[in-house]
Structures are given as C-alpha cells and as structure tokens.
Write a structure and sequence with these properties.
heterodimer; A: alpha/beta; Sulfate adenylyltransferase; Rossmann fold; 2 domains; 6-stranded parallel β-sheet; 18% strand; B: mainly alpha; 54% helix
C-alpha cells in the first residue's frame, strides 16, 4: 500500500475516555463556531485526509507554503489550511489554551490546541496561491473575505457533523482497507465536481486499463454558482457506475471539502489527498481545478515537475472529443481529422440541453445519466 | 520568512556536468537540479508501514459491508 503523505496517516479522532474527557471539559472552554467548510477541514485533518497536517497551519508553515509550496520540513504542500478569526475573537483566545470548535448550532466538533496567532497579507496570499489578485476569481474573493487573524495549532475531533451524504463518506483508513479487500494494488483517483459525460468516462476507462481499480471521488462542499448540486453529481455517477462499470473495479466516495479553484496548486493538493486515501495514481486533465481563463490549460500538469517526491503518479490527459470520422472518442494526439469533424464535450452545451429538457446526444452523455440529472427540478447551484 | 539553505560539497567536475545537462531546460540552477534529484531519491521505495489492529480492520470491514462497498 502506498505510504501516506509525509509518512504517517494522521489520526486525531478522539474516542472512548479521551472523547468523554474532552466533552466534560468543553463547557469550560472558549468556543469558536465554524462554518461548514472549516468543519470539513477539521474532519479532514483529524481523519488523515490532510496527512501529515495535525492542525491548522502555524505561521512558519503558512509562509513556507505560500513561498515554496512546501511545509517547513520540506514536505510538499500547496494550499494553506488556515483558521481565521476576527480581531475581537483573537483577543479572547489565549495561546496555550484550548478552544472548543463548534458547529453553527453550538454542538461540539473538536478542540483546537492553540499554539499561535498571526496576521497575514491577503494580497500576498491571493497572489501566491491563485496567481492573481482579481476578485472575480472565487478563491481570491474568498481570501479577501477572510477575517484578520489566523489561529495555528493541532486539532482533535470530538464528533463528525452529520451530512445528507454520509452514506458516501469514507476516511483514508476505510478506503485503504477497501482497496486491500478488493485486491487492488494500483488505484487511480478521479477528482470531480461535475456530472459525467462521455469524455470523463473515456478518461477514467483509459486510466483503468492500466490500474486495478478506480476511486471516483467527487468534491462535496461549497462550489461556485452554476456548478451541479452535490446530490446531482452523486446520483449521476451512481447511475454511470451501475450501468457501465465493473462493480469490482470501481468505487465512489465523497471528499467533503471546499473547491478553491487554485488550478495548478490545487491539482497538487488533490493528488496529496488521493495519495492519503491510498491511490497510487491520479488523473489530471485539462485545466484541473481551474476557473475562467486564469490558468494556462495544462498548467495543472506542468506543476508536477516541481514535485518529484510526491509519491502518487499523475496520469495526464489532453482534452477528449468525439470525432465523426474516427467514430470514437479521441484526442488531438491520436486523431488527424479537422475541427469540423469534432464534437466537443462542452459542459455549457450539455447544460443548455439539460435545462431545456432535451437529452444530449449519446456521443456526449449516457442517456441514463441525463435522465437522472433531469429528474432534479433545478440541478445547479444558485 | 524565507526558506533556509545550506551548502553541500560536490566535485567540480560533476558541477560542470550538471551545468551542461540543464542548459536549455526549465531547471534554473545546479542547486535546483540537485534538490530535485535528492527529493526524488529520498521519496523512493517507501512502502506504507500503516498497521491496523485486526480489531480495527474488522470494524472498518463491517462498516464497508453495511454501506455496500464489499460483500
């Protein structure tokens, strides 16, 4: 089994007496209520999804991630995992004292062992993580909306907050046992925030030809307006896998995490996470984790050159399209025919057809998948 | 805060060879090249020493069964 990132799968989930003890002390601790995205980060840290992170970044790691795409100990890490609070909150919280982390209703989620409070430069953060300070970029807008102070320190998880998608939620320990049980020695991870069209299926099946199995891992959490709703993505993939994949070769589980749209940096982040889940390979397509035209189409592939020590193997794919002459799904590397013979897998085009209640052509999307999407009154985020 | 660096000694002849080898590539310096190679080398051949107790693994399997992931 592939080694977790940084060498150790983090487990900071409190159980038994430790959990009981934490709950007893909870009442005496200052409380910080977290939004859903930060709760996901706490869970991802504690269950090992973000291994080797043990908590929210301290200043040294934060700056090292911004400047060198690595933690202070040289481990590759590209996205700052940070906990922001207001000035007033920062004054209340004392370094060396624990903070109870709670959900919006005040239910205990975890404990932050506060080690450090520090300020940061939003402009620098946006520029280095996203390569732009344009506030039209959703990640940049989010960065400029962060509160003034970051809290750093290890976190321990008391309870996982239930979601409508728990049936699809596996942690890295569970996926590693799952892959072992299935007898998979090589596993390719597929990151998605979309419903599947034929191009996606072709990429996945091409990768599956060289690996023992595929781990379809949709990102569930805050996304931008116009993206498919989480429940639609899951239902459409279930339908695709049920009808067109070998049961013993494909599994799907969710990754509860906010999309940041950081393009190349986020591609590395996604690879690290899938490595922690036990994947030996990851599919990186055109404009992975990108948005608009902020990143060159293959920047998310080129960045892997900087990380020879990542451990997980990226499988790079060009854009696929349907060629009327070849009568199959192809890409520019293998098809000699002109653009006039090509039918592109345009998300916008497929979306427009679905909105009008029209099933897209079978060359673009499996009819079963389209039908499932069309059962939803409004399949898109508003 | 900037990353800290330190020096290592390599033969001058090897340094020259590396300088030649990286000409016209994306690698900007001998130091970058050596860093890249060393990172690659140090990350190789590490299998997971992840150990689950039998009891933990059985619990995980029960959940996987209940969710329909395994039979």
């Amino acid at each position: 089994m592939i080694q977790p990132h940084g060498g150790k799968l983090v487990d900071r989930v409190l159980r038994g007496e430790e959990r009981k003890d934490a709950l007893e002390k909870a009442g005496s601790l200052p409380t910080l209520r977290l939004d859903e995205e930060l709760i996901s980060d706490v869970e991802n840290i504690a269950t090992g999804v973000y291994s080797p992170l043990e908590g929210f970044l301290d200043e040294a790691d934060f700056l090292n991630v911004l400047n060198h795409k690595r933690l202070s100990d040289d481990t590759a890490w590209t996205i700052p995992i940070v906990l922001d609070v207001t000035e007033d909150q920062a004054t209340i919280f004392k370094v060396g004292r624990d903070i109870l982390l709670a959900d919006a209703a005040g239910r205990p989620v975890g404990v932050l062992r506060l080690q450090e409070k520090y300020r940061f430069d939003r402009e620098e953060m946006a520029s280095k993580v996203y390569g732009t300070t344009d506030r039209c970029h959703p990640g940049v807008a989010r960065t400029f909306g962060l509160k003034d102070v970051f809290l750093g320190g290890p976190v321990d998880l008391i309870d996982i907050v239930p979601t409508p998608f728990d049936r699809y939620k596996l942690n890295p320990r569970e996926t590693r046992v799952l892959f072992k049980e299935k007898g998979w020695k090589t596993v390719v991870g597929f990151q998605t925030r979309n419903t599947p069209h034929i191009g996606h299926e072709y990429v996945q099946k091409t990768a599956m030809t060289f690996t023992d199995g595929i781990f379809v891992n949709p990102v569930i959490g805050r996304k931008k307006k116009g993206d498919f709703k989480d429940e639609v993505i899951l239902a459409s993939y279930e339908e695709l896998i049920k009808n067109y994949y070998l049961k013993e070769r494909a599994v799907m589980a969710i990754l509860q995490m906010e999309m940041r749209y950081a393009g190349p940096r986020e591609a590395i982040h996604h690879a690290i996470i899938r490595k922690n889940f036990g994947c030996t390979h990851i599919i990186i397509g055109r404009d992975h984790a990108g948005v608009g035209t902020y990143y060159p189409p293959y920047a998310a592939q080129d960045i892997f050159e900087e990380f020879p020590d990542l451990g997980i193997v990226p499988l790079f794919f060009r854009s696929f399209y349907y060629c009327k002459k070849c009568q199959s799904v192809v890409n520019e590397k293998i098809c000699p025919h002109p653009a006039s013979d090509q039918i592109q897998f345009s998300g916008t085009k497929i979306r427009d057809l679905l909105v009008k209640g029209v099933i897209p052509p079978a060359e673009l999307m499996r009819p079963e998948v389209a039908e499932v999407i069309m059962k939803f009154e409004n399949p898109f985020n508003e | 805060m900037d990353k800290e660096f330190t020096s290592v000694m390599i033969p001058t002849s090897l340094h020259k060879k590396i300088e030649e080898a990286i000409k016209g590539t994306d690698v900007t310096s001998v130091s970058s090249y050596v860093t890249k190679i060393l990172r690659e080398k140090l990350s190789q051949g590490k299998a997971s020493d992840e150990v689950f107790s039998r009891e933990d693994e059985e619990k995980v399997k029960e959940r996987l069964k209940a969710l329909g992931y395994i039979d």
